[in-house]
Amino acid sequence: MAKYQKPDWFTKHVFNPLVAGLTRLGIPLAGSNILAVKGRKTGEWRKTPVNPLVYEGKRYLVAPRGTTQWVRNLRVTREGELRVGRRTRRFRAEEIPEDARVPILRTYLAKWKWEVGQFFGGVAADSPEEDVRRIAGDHPIFRIEPFD
To answer: How far apart are the first and last CA of the chain?
Structure first.
């Protein structure tokens, strides 16, 4: 079964709306963006704050909470938008296979552990290889490329 860590009340009603509001104003918190993906059933835009990652010159979205609704929607639509202020960047997405996630997860944890570390079961950027591999299946990752 797909792993998902539901946000608590504070995150859902205070933190995420604050981050989203600042990002919509063009003031991203530590590089946050608003991810917009069309719903797989309704076709309506769904939005959530995310922390994009650049690794080896390519951009990625990591799902720290696991198989969230945005992950499920992105698996179906395979495209979305990243928004900061008035700037919108459309992209195509390709999910990274579990066996290729370890170096990306290490880089993500090195940059974002201060914010999302509690979702990784005590695994850090410098944890042993087997620990990072153990959690890789719990955290979907998508490589995103802009539309031309």
So the answer is: 36
The residue type at 23: T
DSSP labels, 133-144 = HHHHTTS-EEEE
The tokens of 56 are what?
């080896």
C-beta neighbour count of 40 within 10 angstroms: 14
pLDDT band at 42 (very low <50, low <70, confident <90, very high): very high
Query: Do 119 and 64 meet the contact criterion of CB atoms below 8 Å apart?
Result: yes
Q: How far apart are CA 14 and CA 93, in angstroms?
A: 29
Q: What angle do CA 117, 27, 140 make, to 5 degrees?
A: 35
Q: How confident is the model at residue 34 (pLDDT cuts 50, 70, 90)?
A: very high
pLDDT exceeds 90 at position 98:
yes
What is the C-alpha radius of gyration for the chain, rounded to an integer number of angstroms? 15
One-letter amino acid at 73 equals N
Domains belonging to the chain, first-starting first, are 9-146 (2.30.110.10)
Query: What are 56-85's pLDDT values in tens digits?
Result: 999 999 999 999 999 999 999 999 999 999
